[in-house]
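Section 4.2 – Deliverable D4.2 (structural model, holo form)

The reporting period included a commitment to supply a predicted holo structure for the target in complex with 2-acetamido-2-deoxy-beta-D-glucopyranose. Inputs used:
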Amino acid sequence: MKRTTFAAALGVLAPLFVPANALLRFGCAKSSVQRLDPLVNNGQNPSPHLHQIIGGNSFNVSMDIASHDLVKESTCTSCQFTEDFSNYWTAVLFFKAKNGTYKRVPQRAQSGMEGTQGGMVVYYMSDALFDTAQKSTVTAFKPGFRMLVGNVNYNNREQARDFRQLTYICMQNEGTRAPESLTFPKQPCPSGIMINHRFPTCWDGKNVDSPNHQDHVSYPETGTFESGGKCPDTHPVRLPQLLLETVWDTKTFNNKADWPADGSQPFVWSSGDATGYATHADYLFGWKDDSLQKHLDGHTYVTAPTLKTQSIAQQNKCSVQDMVKEDIDSWLSKLPGDIVA
Ligand SMILES: *[C@@H]1O[C@H](CO)[C@@H](O)[C@H](O)[C@H]1NC(C)=O
Ligand SMILES: *[C@@H]1O[C@H](CO)[C@@H](O)[C@H](O)[C@H]1NC(C)=O
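Output (structure tokens):
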């Protein structure tokens, strides 16, 4: 309900393309779609399943903390703010036809960002989305910081409880922000499926990574970032809430006659998951100098006075070459990586 209130506010803001702030909200075009994962499968080409990637163009097969500097090695970013060379990625959505073949589902830009090729909308918040004051103090991520949210092997509700707020929205129209579900929507969604990835917001204050890319961060002791939950003593440092929104344009797959006869829904993740519980996202921090911290300290809501922006045309131009070189766009008999869902 609170998100609906904010969506109403965005309805006013978005068409003007005013970046909303210290609640930061900005679009990033796709930079590549390929089977790489330099966090979980660093150095491995190809990685097990397909990802859609945005951000700085230093994205590569290997991105070791010690030797890979996202800021120095990038010459452009697909994001609106030119000081953000971070990389963000998620799995890719496919439609499974009745004859068993798979087709990659395109992504679409949100209102106010029309023309952006694929990609996502990224948020960094000091307080809950609906809180226009954004007064709380948060500590921006440190150089080298990275994390993973979600688990690609999860396939049931009990497991999914390990994570909070990884959700699906069946969009009836551009403004739909509720309800949110933990599984793929069961009915066709006229305006597509929005997928939200909210990352943990408490940090141990020491490690920029951990072996499973999760243990150095934590959720609040109780509730969520939005409900103002306190960080646990083990992870006392309050981070900004990082939220990724991806809109999958399912329009061409919405004919119920093409859906499975058993009444199930036809969408699957590139990892082979047909439930939705395996949803996950990866983040490699790469903001230049202290630009993110400075911005968050500004506690503004509708302006980003300290940040530089670029046009959507420039965002679209910042792509990363395909280093895997495999067919991801035909009707495929198996998902990339020989995966069958
Ligand atoms: C990716 O890494 C390879 C090997 O280190 C390097 O030759 C190449 O230039 C890198 N690509 C980008 C886009 O940085
Ligand atoms: C499978 O179904 C899809 C969707 O109807 C169709 O486009 C494709 O050509 C079919 N492939 C085969 C091998 O029948």
